[in-house]
Amino acid sequence: MKKTSFLYTLVIFLVKTFFKIFYRHKVYGLKHYPEGSGIVAPNHVSFFDPPCVAISCPGEIHFLARESLFKSFFGKLITALNSHPVKKNATNLQVMKDVCCLLKGGYKVLMFPEGTRSRDNKLLEIKPGIGLLLSKSESSIIPTYIHGTFDVWSRKSRFPKLWGKTAVVFGSPIKWESYKDMDRKKAQVLVAQQLTSALRALQQWYNEGREGLPP
Questions:
Q1: pTM for the whole structure
Q2: Neighbouring-strand partners of residue 146
Q3: Closest by alpha carbon to 145, among 86, 210, 212, 90?
Q4: Confidence bin at 189 (pLDDT 50/70/90)
Q5: Rounded to 5 degrees, what are φ and ψ at 207?
Q6: Are 107 and 38 contacting, i.e. CB atoms less than 8 angstroms apart?
Q7: What is the C-alpha to C-alpha distance for residues 57 and 152, in angstroms, rounded to an integer?
Q8: Positions of E strands within 62-214
Q9: Are 80 and 97 in contact (CB under 8 A)?
Q10: pLDDT at position 115, please?
């Protein structure tokens, strides 16, 4: 595993400072955050979600991005920030192979299991594919609830607000060992159901007062 770059550390510091000043950003559930590889799996409602999660993780994480973004100077920047290109016409199978390669290298990878941003701040259907990734990588999924980014910068807004309140809550990891002896297709469905329940439970925990350790 390569050493965290100075640029990554600097950018995370600057973005974290920005979120602290303008959005009073807070992080909960760090005791749940495991060492080693894992899929960081949050709800998705805003362009602000990736940086919001990145500044909340105690270590570096990796991202997937469109290949076209890597064809300029900007590409060198996002490469230094742990972004990896996905070809325009890449199949889901190829994307999964790329993610599995990162996970087996000991990295954590940010993936939005809904596949797109929600338009109404409600959790969309989580696809069973994340369960396949879990079994192929023999890793873990970290349920991650993002609060506040929808109000700050939803799909309906061209620009973000420079005020608000954001938070990230990490939940109990979903581990491959719990499903390894099951039929693969059944396990995929159950993993998606467990992740859905976990994200809803984290949202409820946050909204009901944030007491004790998140579920």
A1: 0.93
A2: 168
A3: 210
A4: very high
A5: -70, -25
A6: no
A7: 20
A8: 63-66, 83-86, 108-110, 140-147, 167-170, 174-175
A9: no
A10: 85
Token readout for 164 is 């608000």
- Token pair 């064809």 in the structure block, residue: 71
Give me the residues paired with residue 108 across strands: 38
Tell me which amino acid residue 180 is.
Answer: K
The average confidence (pLDDT) of the chain is 91
Is-contact 114 123, C-beta < 8 A? Answer: yes
Alpha-carbon gap, residue 22 to 28, rounded angstroms? 19
Least confident of 149-153, 182-186, 188-192: 182-186
Q: Looking at the predicted structure, is the pLDDT value of residue 191 above 80? A: yes
Backbone phi and psi for residue 61, each to the nearest 5 degrees, phi listed first? -130, 165
SS3 label, residue 85: strand
The string of DSSP codes covering 196-208 is HHHHHHHHHHHHT
Q: Is the pLDDT of residue 17 over 90?
A: yes
Find where tokens 């700050």 sit: 152
pLDDT at 90 over 60: no
The sign of the CA dihedral 91, 93, 94, 96 is positive
